[in-house]
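Input/output pair, single chain:
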Amino acid sequence: MGLYERLLEERTKEEQRRGGPLPSMRGLDSKVLGRWSVNTLRNGPKYAADLLMMHRLIQRHPRNAGEGMRLGSLKAKYPKEYHELGAERQSQQELL
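Output:
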Protein backbone atom coordinates (compact mmCIF):
# COMPACT_ATOMS: atom_id res chain seq x y z
CA MET A 1 0.00 0.00 0.00
CA GLY A 2 1.38 3.35 -1.00
CA LEU A 3 1.48 6.53 1.03
CA TYR A 4 -1.50 8.04 -0.78
CA GLU A 5 -3.67 4.97 -0.20
CA ARG A 6 -2.65 4.80 3.46
CA LEU A 7 -3.52 8.47 4.00
CA LEU A 8 -6.91 8.01 2.36
CA GLU A 9 -7.59 4.94 4.51
CA GLU A 10 -6.67 6.85 7.69
CA ARG A 11 -8.87 9.74 6.57
CA THR A 12 -11.82 7.41 6.03
CA LYS A 13 -11.37 5.89 9.50
CA GLU A 14 -11.21 9.35 11.07
CA GLU A 15 -14.36 10.47 9.22
CA GLN A 16 -16.19 7.37 10.50
CA ARG A 17 -14.97 8.04 14.03
CA ARG A 18 -16.11 11.67 13.93
CA GLY A 19 -19.34 10.91 12.10
CA GLY A 20 -18.83 13.43 9.33
CA PRO A 21 -16.51 14.59 6.57
CA LEU A 22 -13.16 16.18 7.35
CA PRO A 23 -11.99 19.39 5.69
CA SER A 24 -10.05 18.85 2.48
CA MET A 25 -6.41 17.82 2.70
CA ARG A 26 -3.93 20.02 0.90
CA GLY A 27 -2.89 18.36 -2.34
CA LEU A 28 -4.43 15.00 -1.64
CA ASP A 29 -7.84 15.85 -3.07
CA SER A 30 -6.25 16.34 -6.48
CA LYS A 31 -7.59 13.91 -9.07
CA VAL A 32 -4.41 14.32 -11.09
CA LEU A 33 -2.19 13.33 -8.14
CA GLY A 34 -4.49 10.41 -7.37
CA ARG A 35 -4.14 9.11 -10.91
CA TRP A 36 -0.36 9.38 -10.73
CA SER A 37 -0.12 7.60 -7.38
CA VAL A 38 0.04 4.29 -9.26
CA ASN A 39 3.03 5.50 -11.32
CA THR A 40 4.81 6.61 -8.17
CA LEU A 41 5.79 3.07 -7.22
CA ARG A 42 7.27 2.46 -10.63
CA ASN A 43 9.10 5.81 -10.89
CA GLY A 44 10.37 5.98 -7.31
CA PRO A 45 9.88 8.26 -4.33
CA LYS A 46 11.69 11.23 -5.90
CA TYR A 47 8.99 11.39 -8.59
CA ALA A 48 6.24 11.51 -5.95
CA ALA A 49 8.03 14.22 -3.96
CA ASP A 50 8.55 16.29 -7.10
CA LEU A 51 4.88 16.00 -8.08
CA LEU A 52 3.67 17.01 -4.63
CA MET A 53 6.04 19.99 -4.61
CA MET A 54 4.94 21.04 -8.10
CA HIS A 55 1.27 20.75 -7.09
CA ARG A 56 1.87 22.88 -3.99
CA LEU A 57 3.73 25.56 -5.95
CA ILE A 58 1.06 25.69 -8.65
CA GLN A 59 -1.80 25.87 -6.15
CA ARG A 60 -0.45 28.72 -4.05
CA HIS A 61 2.10 30.29 -6.43
CA PRO A 62 5.80 30.67 -5.59
CA ARG A 63 6.39 33.09 -2.70
CA ASN A 64 10.02 33.92 -3.49
CA ALA A 65 12.67 33.56 -6.18
CA GLY A 66 13.87 30.19 -4.89
CA GLU A 67 10.41 28.67 -5.15
CA GLY A 68 10.02 30.20 -8.61
CA MET A 69 13.26 28.59 -9.75
CA ARG A 70 12.20 25.26 -8.23
CA LEU A 71 8.89 25.40 -10.10
CA GLY A 72 10.75 26.24 -13.31
CA SER A 73 13.05 23.25 -12.92
CA LEU A 74 10.11 20.92 -12.19
CA LYS A 75 8.22 22.37 -15.16
CA ALA A 76 11.17 21.55 -17.43
CA LYS A 77 11.61 18.09 -15.92
CA TYR A 78 7.91 17.08 -16.03
CA PRO A 79 6.16 19.14 -18.75
CA LYS A 80 3.15 16.80 -19.14
CA GLU A 81 2.47 16.74 -15.41
CA TYR A 82 2.88 20.52 -15.17
CA HIS A 83 0.26 21.12 -17.85
CA GLU A 84 -2.23 18.73 -16.23
CA LEU A 85 -1.76 20.27 -12.78
CA GLY A 86 -2.07 23.76 -14.26
CA ALA A 87 -5.27 22.81 -16.07
CA GLU A 88 -6.66 21.38 -12.83
CA ARG A 89 -5.85 24.63 -11.00
CA GLN A 90 -7.52 26.69 -13.70
CA SER A 91 -10.67 24.56 -13.64
CA GLN A 92 -10.84 24.93 -9.84
CA GLN A 93 -10.62 28.72 -10.16
CA GLU A 94 -13.42 28.76 -12.72
CA LEU A 95 -15.70 27.00 -10.23
CA LEU A 96 -15.15 29.73 -7.63
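The mean pLDDT is 79. Helices lie at 3-18, 31-43, 45-60, 65-77, 79-95.
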